[in-house]
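sry for the spam today, last one i promise. struct tokens for design, 269 residues
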């Protein structure tokens, strides 16, 4: 019944950050190249020098110099046995700092704990990033772990209720997904622009979004937007097995809406 996706299934949609044209040929080019190296690890846990050189389109000597610099700063580490490279502990440290200093996540935590305890479901706080949703906080139930496994926290907006809840009230997110397309992920995934627009119109009418077998077969979620000045800046969602969650939708929506309003009020304070 359940399907567990590897980390790469969640990372392939990570947007490639475009380096500003004016930095080409300047002293900042090496900074951009170093960041390009780090982004190579979004879809692979370990890579060799040849792998990095091929992906960057540069000489192996250049890739080696970039990696050596990143190793010296703790952003990348090298396996003593295989000689291959992976992300270093300093990346983890900085990531944790970014997470801890995220004000929206900070003010949402107490409410998310309450929702998790009251529903017994996995609770997510998602924010838009281009055509995707990044879940900056997740409180997993045992059922959520069964589906999600060790998957990452980025998902294309069209396969999640959170993505639809945000896009319905955030035109930038809506248009970004239209431009990116609709690759299928599970049997219920939105697959065409027409279906996406129809789904968004329904969310605007209902003021909540639902997802059924769209990210994982047999799993469902319900999400409501979190507003600031009538713009959806995030979404609060619950996730679980379809047979457990779907019959509770009518009761979950007003509960989640009240919770989202509390988060929005705390964030604006």
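last one done:
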């Amino acid at each position: 019944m359940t399907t567990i996706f590897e980390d790469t299934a969640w990372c392939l949609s990570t947007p490639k950050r475009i380096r500003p044209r004016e930095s080409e040929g300047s002293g900042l080019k090496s900074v951009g190249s170093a960041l390009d190296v780090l982004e190579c690890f979004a879809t692979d846990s370990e890579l060799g020098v040849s792998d990095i050189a091929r992906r960057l389109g540069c000489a192996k000597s250049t890739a080696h110099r970039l990696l050596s610099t990143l190793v010296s700063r703790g952003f990348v580490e090298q396996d003593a046995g295989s000689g291959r490279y992976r992300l270093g502990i300093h990346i983890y440290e900085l990531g944790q700092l970014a997470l801890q200093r995220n004000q929206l996540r900070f003010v949402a935590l107490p409410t998310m704990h309450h929702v998790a305890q009251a529903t017994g479901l996995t609770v997510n706080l998602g924010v838009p990033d281009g055509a995707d949703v990044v879940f900056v906080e997740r409180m997993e139930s045992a059922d959520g772990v069964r589906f999600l496994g060790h998957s990452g926290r980025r998902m294309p907006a069209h396969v999640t209720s959170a993505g639809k809840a945000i896009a319905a009230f955030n035109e930038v997110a809506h248009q970004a997904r239209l431009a990116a397309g609709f690759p299928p992920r599970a049997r219920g995934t939105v697959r065409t622009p027409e279906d996406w627009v129809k789904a968004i119109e329904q969310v605007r009418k209902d003021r909540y979004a639902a997802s059924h077998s769209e990210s994982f077969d047999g799993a469902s979620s319900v999400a409501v937007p979190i507003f600031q000045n009538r713009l959806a800046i995030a979404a609060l969602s619950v996730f679980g097995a379809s047979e457990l969650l779907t019959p509770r939708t009518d009761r979950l929506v007003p509960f989640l809406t009240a919770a989202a309003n509390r988060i929005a009020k705390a964030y604006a304070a």
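DSSP finds twelve helices and eight strands in the chain. ok im logging off now
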